[in-house]
């Protein structure tokens, strides 16, 4: 598939999903520091256990200063519902210290200084933090600071690949850049593409037994044409 063909396909995917799910307003789902720490906790952890670990941590230590000053063993114990609680406890304390040490913060624990940075500067700073990858940084910058970035989770990646926007050889890391190059550099459009593909991957284009007969994208989908429809014609 040529770049122009992929661009046409992603534009049609946007149009169909905007019509199906409706265009959403870009609103933060959580305050910035919670978004950052909760997303760090979410790695290889269910949403329920992520939430349980987050609230146990704050209930035990009170606020971010309390979390920062907590004994490592006590923090790891509070984070036990999450996978790899020891590693996450260490990373969270390192991240909180790095945030507190930011000159712009004057000893406060806040990441609102990111709003004043360019997208590239903010992304570089976030991805330099221990335990913070491209997906976490992109989610935070798009949801909370309306920066034009493209978060790619497992659902966004799977749907984009099945439809044929991404190649079989593309990786989730590369997909952040590939999709961003083809989408409008508009935070609301990027947010809608992310959320719509997230929902679509959860409800329709599931990993096992995708509901292709119900899918509004089956008219442009490579997976439907090459796998599902081909099987029906045998």
UniProtKB/TrEMBL annotation:
Keyword DNA repair listed: yes
Gene Ontology biological-process entries: base-excision repair
SMART domains named in the record: ENDO3c, FES
Required cofactor(s): [4Fe-4S] cluster
Pfam families given in the database record: HhH-GPD
Family assignment from sequence similarity: Belongs to the Nth/MutY family.
Protein name: Endonuclease III
Organism: Adhaeribacter soli
Upper taxonomic lineage: Bacteria, Pseudomonadati, Bacteroidota, Cytophagia, Cytophagales
């Amino acid at each position: 598939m040529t770049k122009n063909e992929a661009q046409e396909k992603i534009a049609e995917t946007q149009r169909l999903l905007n019509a199906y799910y409706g265009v959403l307003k870009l609103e933060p789902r959580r305050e910035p520091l919670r978004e950052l720490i909760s997303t760090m906790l979410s790695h290889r952890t269910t949403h329920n256990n992520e939430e349980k670990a987050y609230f146990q941590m704050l209930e035990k230590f009170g606020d971010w200063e309390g979390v920062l000053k907590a004994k490592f063993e006590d923090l790891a114990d509070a984070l036990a519902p999450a996978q790899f609680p020891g590693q996450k406890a260490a990373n969270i304390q390192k991240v909180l210290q790095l945030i507190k040490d930011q000159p712009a913060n004057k000893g406060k624990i806040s990441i609102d200084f990111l709003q004043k940075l360019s997208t590239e500067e903010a992304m570089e700073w976030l991805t330099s933090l221990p335990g913070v990858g491209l997906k976490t940084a992109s989610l935070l910058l798009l949801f909370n600071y309306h920066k034009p970035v493209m978060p790619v989770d497992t659902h966004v990646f799977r749907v984009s690949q099945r439809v044929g926007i991404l190649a079989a050889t593309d990786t989730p890391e590369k997909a952040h850049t590939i999709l961003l190059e083809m989408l409008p550099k508009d935070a609301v459009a990027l947010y809608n593409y992310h959320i719509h593909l997230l929902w679509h991957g959860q409800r329709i284009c599931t990993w096992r037994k995708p509901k292709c007969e119900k899918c509004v994208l089956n008219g442009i989908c490579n997976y439907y044409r090459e796998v599902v429809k081909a099987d029906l014609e045998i």
